[in-house]
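User: quick one, sequence for these tokens?
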């Protein structure tokens, strides 16, 4: 399939190129309300979930497969303006070491708690003060795979719209109801819905497998360095531990979230109430 027609950008001084480079900074993403989405899978997932792309920049010399023309045609069909670039120009806007020749601009994700749809037996992830974009993106990827009903980012340290969050999530940031709220707002929201709050900590006595996760549940994970705040640990959260048999005294926060979520999946698949 031939490539669609597009304006070709050859100058590193082009204003559009300068703007994209600035979007690496959170302050510029916030000011412009735009986020960069780089990579074939990420852009395709955004389109598949009706997330609007305003512009798509591509460099055929950097394509890694044969499906890129179809993706460009789909983006054009969904209203994106296409711009072809030279290799030097694309390398300037790319944030990956090995760019795939595809980068789009999309509106930032700015959702509140009211965007999480009601569910009969919800499973929610709460991520408090996650510091590393890669960990937040991996939590989103796991949440999508586990079929959770929503992800709440509390007291954020990492911007949801960070390009590395999008990359680590492989675009599932667009397939999930993802929102931001304060810890207090989130606790009130969960309490109003009668949801059990589960928090993993090495200091708990109860193993995570002993907890009933077939009921409406929020799995809460916290900062890689400090863990969950006292607002969670000193509240009504049911504390559980993930057994550690080696010398390490803790797990990566995304790994801990994965273990807890898939225990919930396991229990719910075995439960007669979830057999459908």
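Assistant:
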């Amino acid at each position: 399939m031939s490539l669609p027609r597009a304006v070709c950008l050859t100058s590193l001084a082009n204003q559009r190129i300068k703007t994209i480079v600035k979007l690496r900074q959170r302050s510029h993403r916030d000011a412009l309300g735009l986020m960069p989405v780089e990579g074939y899978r990420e852009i395709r997932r955004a389109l598949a979930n009706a997330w609007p792309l305003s512009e798509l920049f591509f460099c055929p010399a950097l394509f890694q497969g044969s499906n890129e023309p179809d993706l460009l045609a789909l983006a054009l069909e969904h209203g994106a303006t296409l711009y072809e670039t030279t290799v030097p120009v694309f390398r300037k806007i790319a944030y990956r070491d090995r760019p795939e020749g595809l980068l789009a601009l999309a509106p930032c994700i700015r959702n509140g708690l009211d965007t999480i749809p009601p569910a009969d037996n919800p499973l929610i992830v709460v991520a408090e003060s996650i510091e590393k974009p890669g960990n937040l993106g991996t939590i989103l990827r796991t949440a999508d795979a586990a079929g959770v009903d929503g992800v709440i980012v509390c007291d954020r340290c990492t911007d949801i719209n960070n390009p590395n969050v999008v990359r680590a999530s492989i675009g599932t940031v667009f397939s999930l109801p993802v929102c931001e709220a304060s810890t207090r707002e989130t606790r009130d929201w969960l309490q109003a819905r009668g949801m059990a709050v589960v928090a993993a900590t090495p200091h708990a006595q109860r193993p995570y497998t002993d907890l009933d996760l077939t009921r409406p549940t929020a799995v809460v994970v916290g900062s890689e360095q400090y863990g969950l705040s006292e607002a969670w640990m000193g509240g009504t959260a049911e504390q559980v531990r993930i057994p550690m048999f080696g010398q390490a005294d803790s797990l990566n926060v995304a790994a801990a979230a994965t273990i807890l979520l898939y225990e919930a999946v396991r229990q719910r698949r075995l439960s007669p109430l979830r057999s459908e």
